[in-house]
Write a structure and sequence with these properties.
Elements lengths: L4 H11 L2 E6 L5 E4 L2 E2 L15 H22 L6 H14 L1 H5 L2 H7 L3 H7 L5 E2 L2 E2 L1 H15 L23 H12 L1
Antiparallel strand pairs: 1-2, 2-3, 4-5
Length: 181
């Protein structure tokens, strides 16, 4: 599976796009649309700047990484909304968080409702609850619970990274919005 435009929009809305490196609330150097060194190249450093085209490329690579991470650990069929919600969760928290979570344990046991209820637990940096994370987890849980009309559930399978450099469709439109702001 690939992240849909709905999932891409969810990620972009919560991550925003910054072309100069900054420290996120967890103190991690971040650039572009939520890219950190933990997600892969490029390594993010203080003073680093990128172009919008580079931010688009990085996001495309990062999405493939997190799509594959979800596909590797989820053992039950997912609909597109469930997949998108899990990619957003993993994009924000990392592969290890999903892999070790009660959310995943419940999901792989077939407890989709219990899994959806677990998103809300991931709204803290250390002991501190962050309003932005609370909103993001609620949006992810809402998306996870939302049925997909006219679509069946399918296993999530890893995908190969694309070589395309230019985003298309809604992602391109979202990137255009970020360029204007």
């Amino acid at each position: 599976m690939r992240t849909s435009t709905t999932g891409q929009r969810l990620i972009a809305d919560f991550e925003g796009c910054k072309l100069t490196a900054y420290k996120c609330p967890a103190g991690i150097w971040t650039i572009g649309i939520g890219h950190t060194t933990a997600a892969g190249v490029p390594a993010v450093k203080s003073g680093m700047r990128i172009t919008q085209a580079e931010a688009d490329d990085i996001l495309a690579r990062d999405l493939v990484r997190f799509e594959n991470a979800v596909a590797r650990v989820v053992e039950v069929p997912l609909n597109q909304n469930q997949f998108d919600a899990l990619v957003s969760f993993t994009f924000n928290l990392g592969e290890g968080a999903l892999a070790s979570s009660t959310l995943l344990k419940k999901l792989n046991a077939g407890d989709y409702t219990g899994a959806a209820d677990q998103f809300a637990r991931w709204n803290k940096v250390g002991p501190k609850v962050l309003a932005g994370l609370t909103r993001r987890r609620a949006a992810e849980a809402d998306l996870f619970r939302r049925p997909v009309t006219g679509a069946s559930t399918v296993p999530a399978t890893p995908v190969a990274p694309t070589t395309s450099r230019a985003p298309t469709g809604l992602l391109a439109a979202l990137m255009g919005l970020f360029r204007r702001s």
